[in-house]
Write a structure and sequence with these properties.
mainly alpha, Fumarate Reductase Cytochrome B subunit, 3 domains, 18 helices, binds protoporphyrin IX containing FE
C-alpha cells in the first residue's frame, strides 16, 4: 500500500460497488422470494402444518381462484427463478464464481472472525474494542452469502423433485421436509438481511448501492476499509499508467468459507458441531456417535468370520441377528462421512500429506504403538460407559442426561492425571 493512499484522509466522491447484472439479479431474486414465500405459505393448508393465519391462506387462495392455480403459479415462479440463475451460472461462471471473486466476496478471513466476535461482545456491552477493517462485504453479509450459496441449490433440487414427483414417495416425502427446512434457514437469515438492508440507518448507502451500483467513498472508507484501500491502490496504478497487479496466488485463507489453511477458531467449530447435532436430531431422529459405529464394523467382521459365535454371544447378538444387516445403521454412515469430510477439508486447505504427528522425543513406531494402545483403552472404556465423547457426552449432554456430565467430569479428571504422566511423550 503506497503512502499516498494512507494519507488520503478525507475521502469524497463515489465508488462503483455493484455491476448492473448483479443489481438486476438481486432484485429479481428478492421479488421472486416475496412471491414464493407468500404463495408457499398459502399452499400449506393442512391443519397440522399450517403456520400462516387462516385469513391469509383464504385471501391468497381467492386471489388465484383455487389452490390448484396457486400451486401452478408457485411452480411457474420457481421454475423461472431456477432458469434465471441457471442462465447467470452458465454465462457468468467465470465472472461470478471465479476464485478471486469468491475469496473477496464470500470467504471469511481472520479479520472477519474477529469482527464477528467483537461485534457480538459490543452488542452485549462487553467490549469497546474497535472492529477490525472489513472487505467489500462485512463478515455478517459474507455468512449470509455463504448460506445462500449452500441453500439455493438444495431448495431448487427439492422443489423440482416435488413439482415433477421425481423418485419414489419416500424421496418426494424427504424433498418436502428438506425444502421447508432449507427455506426456513434462508428466511431466518433474510430477516436480518432485509432489516440491515432496508431499515438500519447506518446501512442506507448500502441499500442505495443496490440500486445505483455506487457507494459513497466515505462510507466505504469507514465500513469496508480493506476494500476501499484496494480500490484506491488500483486507481493510483491506473493514474500512473501502470498495469494492474496480477492477483496473488491464493492467500492462506478460505477459497470459500470452507477453504481455510488455518484451523477454524474453536468456538466457531463448536457452534458448527452443535448445529450438526441439532440437524442430526431433526433429520435422523438420533444424536451423533462414534464408538457405536466402530462396534458395528467389528460386529460385521465377526459375523463374517464366526457367524454362529456372534449371533449366540450375549453382547454381539445385540448387533448380529439373522435377517438384520449389521451395517444398516446411521452411525456406520456417519463415520464414513466424518472420514470423507476430514479428507475433503484437509485437501481444500492444502494440508493433505502422509505424516505421523508426534513429540520430538519418541520415534514414529512408538507413537503408533501408543496410539493403538490408547485407542484400544478408550474403545473399551467407551463401551463400558455405554458411549464415548460423541454418543454419550455430546448427544447425551444435549438432552441433559446425568450420565453425560459424570462422563465428561471423569474424562477431564482422567485427562489431567494422564497428562501428568504422559506429557513427556509430547514435549
Ligand atoms: C426487500 C428485500 C431485500 C433487501 C432490501 C435487500 C437488500 C440488500 C442490499 C442493500 C444489499 C447490498 C449490501 C451491500 O452492498 O453492502 C444486498 C446484497 C445481497 N442480498 Fe439482498 N435484499 C433483499 C432481499 C434478498 C433476498 C431475498 C436474498 C436471497 C435470498 C438476498 C441476498 C443477497 C445477497 C447474497 C447479497 C450479497 C451480499 C450479502 O450477502 O449481503 N437479498 N441486499
Amino acid at each position: 500500500m503506497s503512502s499516498a493512499v494512507q494519507m488520503h484522509s478525507t475521502p469524497t466522491g463515489m465508488i462503483k460497488k455493484h455491476h448492473v447484472a448483479i443489481i438486476l439479479l438481486h432484485w429479481f431474486n428478492a421479488i421472486t422470494w416475496l412471491l414464493e414465500l407468500t404463495t408457499g405459505a398459502a399452499l400449506i393448508q393442512s391443519e397440522h402444518f399450517r403456520f400462516a393465519p387462516l385469513w391469509f391462506v383464504t385471501m391468497i387462495t381467492e386471489v388465484f381462484g383455487s389452490r390448484a392455480n396457486l400451486l401452478r403459479f408457485h411452480i411457474a415462479a420457481g421454475l423461472t427463478w431456477i432458469t434465471v440463475f441457471a442462465v447467470y451460472g452458465i454465462f457468468g461462471w467465470q465472472t461470478y464464481f471465479h476464485q478471486e471473486v469468491l475469496e473477496r466476496e464470500v470467504a471469511l478471513d481472520r479479520d472477519d472472525f474477529n469482527w464477528l466476535r467483537i461485534r457480538l461482545l459490543r452488542i452485549l456491552g462487553r467490549s469497546n474494542e474497535p472492529l477490525p477493517p472489513q472487505g467489500i462485504y462485512n463478515a455478517g453479509q459474507k455468512m449470509f452469502a455463504v448460506m445462500v450459496y449452500i441453500m439455493f441449490p438444495i431448495i431448487m433440487v427439492t422443489g423440482l423433485i416435488m413439482a415433477f414427483h421425481w423418485g419414489s414417495m419416500t424421496v418426494v416425502g424427504w424433498a418436502v421436509v428438506i425444502h421447508f427446512a432449507t427455506v426456513a434457514v434462508v428466511v431466518s437469515g433474510l430477516m436480518v438481511h432485509v432489516y440491515m438492508g432496508a431499515v438500519f440507518p447506518e446501512e442506507k448507502p448500502a441499500f442505495f448501492s443496490m440500486i445505483t451500483g455506487m457507494v459513497p467513498e466515505e462510507f466505504a472508507y469507514k465500513h469496508h476499509h480493506k476494500w476501499w484501500k484496494e480500490v484506491k491502490m488500483l486507481e493510483e496504478l491506473h493514474a500512473a499508467g501502470q498495469p494492474e497487479p496480477r492477483p496473488a496466488p491464493a492467500p492462506s485463507r478460505l477459497l470459500t468459507a470452507l477453504r481455510m489453511k488455518e484451523y477454524w477458531p474453536g468456538y466457531w467449530a463448536g457452534l458448527g458441531l452443535g448445529l450438526t447435532l441439532l440437524a442430526t436430531f431433526l433429520i435422523v431422529g438420533q444424536g451423533l456417535g462414534a464408538s457405536g459405529g466402530f462396534t458395528r464394523y467389528l460386529a460385521f467382521i465377526l459375523s463374517l468370520v464366526a457367524p454362529g459365535y456372534a449371533s449366540a454371544h450375549p453382547y454381539w447378538s445385540n448387533y448380529v441377528q439373522p435377517g438384520q444387516p449389521v451395517l444398516m445403521d446411521f452411525l456406520v454412515f456417519e463415520l464414513i462421512g466424518v472420514a470423507l469430510g476430514g479428507l475433503l477439508s484437509g485437501w481444500l486447505a492444502g494440508r493433505l500429506k502422509w505424516t505421523t504427528d508426534k513429540g520430538p522425543r519418541i520415534s514414529p513406531k512408538t507413537r503408533w504403538m501408543l496410539a493403538f494402545l490408547g485407542g484400544a483403552i478408550s474403545g473399551v472404556g467407551a463401551r463400558m460407559a455405554r458411549g464415548c465423547t460423541s454418543g454419550l457426552a455430546l448427544s447425551g449432554g444435549s438432552v441433559l442426561s446425568a450420565g453425560a456430565f459424570v462422563f465428561m467430569l471423569a474424562v477431564f479428571a482422567a485427562g489431567f492425571v494422564g497428562a501428568f504422566f504422559l506429557r513427556r511423550i509430547w514435549l
